[in-house]
C-alpha cells in the first residue's frame, strides 16, 4: 500500500521535499492530468527504513489530504498501516 494525495491538496509543496525516494510530483507532472499532487505507488516505500511514519503526511498541513492507497501498490509496505482511504496521520 502506498500513500495517495486526495483532491483536498492545497499544492503547498510541503510534501515534495520530505519524500526520501522522490515518489511525489506536483500537479504539473501528474501523469493522470489531474490538478493535484501525485504519488508514484511503485516508488513509494511508506518511509519504511527512513522515518517512523510517512514523512509527507507528517509535513502536510491539510488534515486528511494524504491517505493510504491499495494494499500491494507499494514497493515496501508498513506493518502498522491503516485501511485504504483512511488518513495516514490523524489529528
Topology:
Blueprint: E1 3-5, E2 24-25, E3 38-39, H1 55-59, E4 66-68
Task: Write a brief structural summary.
The protein has 91 residues and is mostly loops.
Keywords:
91 residues; little secondary structure; two-stranded antiparallel ribbon
Q: What does this 3D model show about the protein?
A:
The protein is mostly loops and 91 residues long. It contains one helix and four strands; from the N terminus they run E-E-E-H-E. The strands form two sheets. The chain has a two-stranded antiparallel sheet. Strands 2-3 form a two-stranded antiparallel ribbon. The chain is globular, with a radius of gyration of 12 Å. The protein starts with a strand and ends in a 23-residue tail after the last strand. The model has no long low-confidence stretch (mean pLDDT 88).
Amino acid at each position: 500500500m502506498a500513500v495517495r494525495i486526495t483532491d483536498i491538496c492545497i499544492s503547498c509543496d510541503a510534501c515534495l521535499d520530505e519524500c526520501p525516494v522522490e515518489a511525489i510530483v506536483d500537479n504539473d507532472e501528474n501523469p493522470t492530468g489531474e490538478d493535484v499532487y501525485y504519488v508514484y505507488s511503485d516508488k513509494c516505500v511508506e518511509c519504511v527504513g527512513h522515518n517512523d511514519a510517512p514523512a509527507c503526511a507528517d509535513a502536510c498541513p491539510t488534515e486528511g489530504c494524504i491517505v493510504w492507497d491499495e494494499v500491494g501498490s507499494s514497493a515496501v509496505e508498513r506493518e502498522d498501516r491503516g485501511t485504504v482511504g483512511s488518513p495516514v496521520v490523524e489529528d
